[in-house]
From TrEMBL:
Nucleus is among the record's keywords: no
MF (Gene Ontology): D-ribulokinase activity
Keyword hit for Plastid: no
Alphabetized InterPro entries for the sequence: ATPase_NBD (IPR043129), Carb_kinase_FGGY (IPR000577), FGGY_C (IPR018485), FGGY_N (IPR018484), FGGY_RbtK-like (IPR006003)
Protein name: FGGY carbohydrate kinase domain-containing protein
Native organism: Glycine soja (Wild soybean)
NCBIfam families tied to this protein: 5C_CHO_kinase
GO terms under cellular component: cytoplasm
Keywords carried by this UniProt record: Kinase, Transferase
C-alpha cells in the first residue's frame, strides 16, 4: 500500500487531493485545510506527434495518474484514510471510448492505444473554418469563431476521416471528465469543459445555481440546430448520450465517490467524494484568483474579482477574467457562464505556444547544447543561466534596464497560430533581426526577445478585453513560466500592471484539490472554498522608470506591425497564385 497509515492516537487530518494531467505528465498534490501543499509528485505520459496530429493514450494517462497519486501520498506521509476528497483537472484533450469503456483509435495509424486527440492538435483547421462559415448564433459565445483546438471541429474530422472509429465510439469526453468517470463511473460532464470546448450554453442552467441537492442536471444547454447544421446531428441521439446527458457545476460530488476498483488502483479509500472536474487552466484560475494581499481579501465587493486576470503560463498561456455581466469580445473565447467561478461570466484569452515556443527557440539554436551542459555543471536550469547572462550583458553594455538589449530583435510569437485576440490559426511566427551570429549571447537575446513577444501578446489581449468592457488592472500568474523572474518582470513592465504570485507553488493542483474539498460539502460553494484556500505570495510591480515604458511602447508598436505586414504578404502571395 503506497499511502502510509497514521497511528490510532493521532487525530485524523483532512487532506484534499488534486490531480492535474498536463501535456507531458500527470501530477498529484495533497493540501491541508489551509491550502498548504503537503507534497506532490509527477509521472510522465506518452505522446505521439505526426505533423498536425498529436495523440495520447487514456490507458497510459490513468497509469501515470495512479503512480503520481501513490508517490505523492508517500512523499507527503499522508495516510489513505486522511484523504477526504479529490478532484481532477486536465488539458482539454478529446477522449474516445467504446461501450465497454475501452479505447477507440483516433489515429491514422489505427493504433487503439492512441484514443486521445491532444488539445494542441491542429488536424481540424479545415473543419473549424467550415463550422465558422455557418455563422451560427452559438459562435457568439466563443469569440465568433471556434478554434481547431475545440472539440466540434475534431469530432467532425474523425467522422469524415475515420468512419470505423466514429461508429465504434460510445462516449466522447473531455479528458478531465473522462478521469472523473474513470474514478467514479459517473459520466456527468463539467460545465467548465462543455461550455468552454463543446459550445454548450451554460447559462441554460442559471435557474439551477442554488439547487445544492441535485446530484446531476439534465443537459439542457446543447443547441441541436448547431450540431445538425455542422453535420454532427447523430450526436443528438439518446439525449446527447455520447457527448453528455447530464452536466454539473465544478466541484459537484459525482456518483457514490471513488469506486472500489479505482480506489485500489490509486491506493485510496472507496467512496471518497470526487468533485466534477475543471480544465487545467481553469483549475489554475480557481487556485489563484483569490490569492490577493490581506488588505484586498477583506474587501467583500463582488466586483473586486472582476478587476483581475489570471495568467496560467505553461506549454501555452491561458488568460482568464470574470465579469458579472456577459461581455462579447471578438477573437476571445466566451462569455462562458459559471465555467470557472460560479455565477460569473468567464472570458478566456490564450496563446497557443509560450513555454513550448521558448523551448523551440532554445533547443533549435546552435548554442543550445553547450549552454545546457554549462547549466547542468552549475546545477541550475537553462533559464537561470540565460537570465544570468542577460544581467551580465546589460552591465557590460552599460544599459539601465535589461529589456534594452533587444532593440534590434523583435519576435511575433504566433508560431502555432494566434488564439487571441486575432483568432487566426494560420498566423505564423516572425523573428526580425537575425544575423550570422550563433553565439550563446545571441541565443540569450533571442530568448529575451521571445519572452517580450509573448508579453506583448498578453498586453494585446488585456487591452482588447478592456476595450470591450473589462476593467482589468491586476494580473495573477501561475504555472511553470511564472517561476521565471525575467518572464514575470517583463510582463509587469510591458502591461504596466502589478503581478501577484500565489503563496503555493502548485495552484493548478490546488484548484483541482478545491474541487474535492467542495465535493465533501465542507464548503457551501466553490467561491467560499477559493477564499479559504487561496493565498498571495510575492507581488511584482512594473518599473517606474519612464524610459522603460517608452521603450516597450515602441517595441509594442513594432510587434503589432509584424502581424499587419504578414497579412499584407499573405494577400500578395494569394493574388500571385490566383
Amino acid at each position: 500500500m503506497a499511502a502510509s497509515s497514521s497511528s490510532s492516537d493521532e487525530p485524523s487530518r483532512s487532506v484534499f487531493l488534486g490531480v492535474d494531467v498536463g501535456t507531458g505528465s500527470a501530477r498529484a498534490g495533497l493540501f491541508d485545510e489551509e491550502g498548504k501543499l503537503l507534497g506532490s509528485s509527477s509521472s510522465p505520459i506518452q505522446i505521439w506527434k505526426d505533423g498536425a496530429c498529436v495523440e495520447q493514450s487514456s490507458t497510459d494517462i490513468w497509469l501515470a495518474v495512479c503512480a503520481a497519486v501513490k508517490a505523492a501520498c508517500s512523499k507527503a506521509k499522508v495516510a489513505s484514510t486522511e484523504v477526504k476528497g479529490m478532484g481532477f483537472a486536465a488539458t482539454c484533450s478529446l477522449v474516445a471510448v467504446d461501450s465497454d469503456s475501452s479505447p477507440v483509435s483516433v489515429s491514422w495509424s489505427g493504433d487503439s492505444r492512441r484514443n486521445v486527440i491532444v488539445w494542441m492538435d491542429h488536424r481540424a483547421i479545415e473543419q473549424a473554418e467550415r463550422i465558422n462559415s455557418s455563422k451560427s448564433p452559438i459562435l457568439e459565445y466563443c469569440g465568433a469563431a471556434v478554434s481547431p483546438e475545440m472539440e466540434p471541429p475534431k469530432l467532425l474530422w474523425v467522422k469524415e476521416n475515420l468512419q470505423e472509429s466514429w461508429s465504434m465510439v460510445f462516449r466522447w469526453m473531455d479528458l478531465s471528465d473522462w478521469l472523473s468517470y474513470r474514478a467514479t463511473g459517473d459520466d456527468t460532464r463539467s460545465l467548465c469543459t462543455t461550455v468552454c470546448k463543446w459550445t454548450y450554453l451554460g447559462h441554460a442552467h442559471m435557474q439551477h445555481v442554488n439547487d445544492k441537492e441535485s446530484r446531476d442536471m439534465e443537459a439542457c444547454g446543447w443547441d441541436d440546430d448547431f450540431w445538425e447544421e455542422i453535420g454532427l446531428g447523430d450526436l443528438i441521439e439518446g439525449h446527447h448520450a455520447k457527448i453528455g446527458r447530464s452536466v454539473a457545476f465544478p466541484g459537484h460530488p459525482l456518483g457514490s465517490g471513488l469506486t472500489p476498483t479505482a480506489a485500489k488502483e490509486l491506493g485510496l479509500v472507496p467512496g471518497i467524494p470526487v468533485g466534477t472536474s475543471l480544465i487545467d487552466a481553469h483549475a489554475g484560475g480557481v487556485g489563484v484568483i483569490e490569492s490577493v494581499p490581506q488588505s484586498e481579501a477583506a474587501d467583500h465587493d463582488k466586483e473586486a474579482i472582476c478587476n483581475r486576470m489570471v495568467l496560467v503560463c505553461g506549454t501555452s498561456t491561458c488568460h482568464m477574467a470574470v465579469s458579472r455581466s456577459k461581455l462579447f469580445i471578438p477573437g476571445v473565447w466566451g462569455p462562458f457562464w459559471s465555467a470557472m467561478v460560479p455565477e460569473y461570466w468567464l472570458t478566456e484569452g490564450g496563446q497557443s505556444a509560450t513555454g513550448a515556443l521558448l523551448d523551440h527557440i532554445i533547443e533549435n539554436h546552435a548554442a543550445s547544447a553547450c549552454l545546457a551542459n554549462q547549466a547542468a555543471s552549475q546545477k541550475i536550469s537553462l533559464f537561470e543561466l540565460l537570465n544570468k547572462m542577460l544581467e551580465t550583458m546589460m552591465v557590460e553594455l552599460n544599459l539601465s534596464f535589461i529589456a534594452a538589449l533587444t532593440k534590434d530583435v523583435h519576435v511575433l510569437p504566433d508560431f502555432h497560430g494566434n488564439r487571441s485576440p486575432i483568432a487566426d490559426p494560420k498566423a505564423k511566427g516572425v523573428i526580425y533581426g537575425l544575423t550570422l551570429d550563433t553565439s550563446d549571447k545571441q541565443l540569450a537575446l533571442l530568448y529575451l526577445a521571445t519572452v517580450q513577444g509573448i508579453a506583448y501578446g498578453t498586453r494585446h489581449i488585456v487591452e482588447h478585453c478592456n476595450a470591450h468592457g473589462h476593467k482589468i488592472n491586476t494580473l495573477l500568474a501561475c504555472g511553470g513560466l511564472s517561476k521565471n523572474p525575467i518572464f514575470i518582470q517583463e510582463h509587469a513592465d510591458i502591461i504596466g500592471s502589478p503581478i501577484i504570485l500565489p503563496r503555493e507553488s502548485e495552484p493548478v493542483l490546488l484548484g483541482a484539490a478545491i474541487l474535492g474539498a467542495v465535493a465533501t460539502r465542507k464548503y457551501h460553494s466553490l467561491s467560499e472554498a477559493m477564499k479559504a484556500l487561496n493565498a498571495a505570495g510575492q507581488v511584482i510591480h512594473p518599473s517606474k522608470d519612464p524610459k522603460v515604458r517608452k521603450y516597450h511602447d515602441a517595441k509594442y508598436k513594432i510587434f503589432r506591425g509584424l502581424y499587419e505586414q504578414q497579412l499584407s504578404y499573405r494577400s500578395a502571395m494569394a493574388q500571385a497564385l490566383s
